[in-house]
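Re: that chain you flagged

S.,

Sorry for the slow reply, it's been a week of failed gels. I finally had a moment to sit down with the sequence you sent. For the record, here it is as I used it:
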Amino acid sequence: MKLKYEVKIEESAVRIIIADDLDMHVAGELRKVLRGTFTTKPSVVIVDLAQVRFIYSSGIATLIEALKNLRAWNGALRVENSSETVRDTFDIAGLREILGIA
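Prediction finished late last night. Pasting the structure tokens below so you have them in one place:
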């Protein structure tokens, strides 16, 4: 399965708009997309989940890995526009505050 996404450059941030559920079939590709944005060492990477209906543990692990990598140069990861179902998943995992989810 191929991940559907779009990358947009916004001032000092990079926005990645995901158009798929984040499961083990696309987590590896998301990891590559995230790593590709790290070459410019953005201050913020925004992962826009407006079109994601569900996130599985492999998707969560990929986001946590990205957060660790970004912190190496004081970068930040923000997760935006997640559905109530996805926010509930982050709440259960105790990650809502860590990932800057409003």
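What I noticed first: The helical segments are 27-37, 57-71, 84-93.

Talk soon,
D.
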